[in-house]
Amino acid sequence: MSLLALAALVAHVAEAASSPDLTTTITAPSGVYVYQTGTWQVTVKNAGTRDAAGSTVSIQLPVTNTSPSVYVMGTLGTASSGCTASGTTLNCALGTLRKGKSKTVSFSITLPESAGDLDFTATAATASSESNTANNAANATASLLNYSPSFSGDVAVANAHCTGTALESFFECELFPSSISEHVATFHDDVDQTISFPDDPGYWGTWDINGSELSFVYESAAGIEAEFVGYGVSGNCWEGITTFPSGSYVSPYEVCI
Length: 257
Prior knowledge:
Number of helices: 2
Strand content: over 45%
CATH architecture of the largest domain: Sandwich
Order of helices and strands: HEEEEEEEEEEHEEEEEEE
Strand order of the largest sheet: 10-11-12-13-14-15-16-17
Structural class: mainly beta
């Protein structure tokens, strides 16, 4: 092999061994209540030995279980310069990321009460050749605080709800206001914590509160009709999911006193 060919081979091997290596981390806000805006941060670091040109990070936001279209499960607020929302994804341009350096983007989002996890996935990429992409993505799940509404004496309760399959949040009902129905009930502050229905005496039930959690059961002469578990989303409302023993449908409920 000629010296010229050997030099070219050495240069090629050295170039292959030298490449960008993007790593991604997500930092979730702490102490945020449901329906309260929190600020998330995504940091991309180039841990490699070459600059990463044309670097980007794409952030997959939590999604609804609506069909056929899906939406962001929450309300996206402001984001760093260079970030643009597209459907349920936030795409951020980072430019050239020098070796050993990092860039952080932030965005705010208001998240609802959800029976399912509210997951975020951030994935970094570069236009440069990158030999290791195994650490380009990071995941995080929102952890939200709930309120603990309470009452004394008999209280009128307003229930708003929609019905579907696989729904996990009343937020999904609010995306389609025409789908929402309402009924009223009375929660009695008696020994058995009973429920009555002024407009339909053929139904009754029982309720219970444990911290931020409200649960109740609706019954009729045929047996249990519906079961609800929800959590405080304000000083006087809970949100959660009602299930029905007779079928696969569920109803996200907003229950307010």
